[in-house]
Amino acid sequence: MGQKQQSTADPTAEPKKRRRVGFFNLDSGIEAKDCIKVYLVSSKEEVGSPDSFCIDPVDLNSFFDEDGKIYGYQGLKITIWVSSISFHAHADITFESTSDGGKGITDLKAALQRIFAETLVESKDDFLQAFSTGSNLIGSMISSGETLKLKASNGRVTDCNSDLKAAISDVEVVRMVVGKTAAGHLYSRLIPLVLLLVDGSSPIDVSDPSWELYVLIQKKPDQQGEIQCRVLGFSAIYRFYHYPDSSRLRLGQILVLPPYQHKGYGRYLMEVLNDVAVSEDVYDLTVEEPLDYFQHVRTCVDLSRLLVFDPIQHAVSSAVSRLKQGKLSKKIHIPRFMPPPSVIDDVRKSLKINKKQFLKCWEVLIYLGLDSVDKYMEDFVSIISSRVKDDIIGKDTGTNGKRVIEVPSDYDKEMAFVMCRSLVGEASDVQMDENQTNQEEQLRKLVDERVKEIKSIAQKVSGHRV
Questions:
Q1: Per residue in 289-329, pLDDT tens?
Q2: Coil, helix or strand at residue 413
Q3: Among 29, 48, 35, residue whose Cα is nearest residue 78
Q4: What is the spatial distance between Cα 291 and Cα 154, in angstroms, rounded to a whole number?
């Protein structure tokens, strides 16, 4: 077998270049929340000032691509100013360089317009000029609305503390019907703040006249001595028809602007809404998916009214007396200590508090009646635990409080079930783990959270040391 002949290299030929393997530097992107700052400013002097009020948006990432990231920029910094005078916005965008790292270059202008729409002003000079040209904008918008005053309830003025009275001394609430006044135009200016600050929010339909805006306004003189109207917050209420000749009010959105939060304005706005519901004799006032903090404030407001509502005092005393009689935690079936149907109806008719909300308040009323005495707390917690379990087992699946639960069976899997019905008939939003041990742990956690919430509310409304 002959050997394979090797070719003789040409000494004059240029050496071949070696191929090198390179790795593409894929752009990992930057989260919107890490490069964007949003400031709420009330004058052109505050624009760019280190003392400007920085607001903390709920979720900026949701406005940028599918994964919430911005791509194609190095050293990106976006500063957004929002005017609390005209609610125009301006974005100052700076970056070192741009390059397509595999996922393109994010269109920042289009992304920001998804939030701010027509309120976004491209020119900084125009934005600054709007502080003077738009100084009377809010005043002109609300001029066609109806000014509402906080009324007396059952012969007594609402029990505002001194701090709240001081906070509301120079504010008023203006009601505007969407579609009939400038309410739609005003709301369109507020939409960006709703999107940024209210979790899971979406704009209301400004063409639907069933929506009403309740705008919290503060009137103060400006540097020239002219009265200027500032929006401190607002709520959007939907008015439903209720057979045969009434209506129901549902609170869809409520927002107090960040600089004015924790000063009593939210409570004042709720007090006015309660007054409207009572004075117009609507069927009831409900809230659409309230967030935890708002629900806390709402319950405190409603409890202040219930504590001086005579028609329920006997029922509360009776429930407290029965609770003090025995060791409920040792019993197989623990009673719910529900208020009588007539009491639930009285509260709805007179105070316009719906059943679901009243039952939350009822638990706090019982706790207040026990005066946080330790020897009663075990039984009280047992009642809360029983209610939480019943609500979860009776989770509403579209069958009016009924729930079909599959159980193990060796006979016929499709025929093995138990149907349960909640005693209250209210739906629960809690998703329980299928594991029995995990279920018990989750139930304990829910009960602990509810008891903690009850104690916190009781302390707020009564000053008790709990």
A1: 888 889 999 999 999 999 999 999 999 999 999 888 866 65
A2: helix
A3: 35
A4: 29
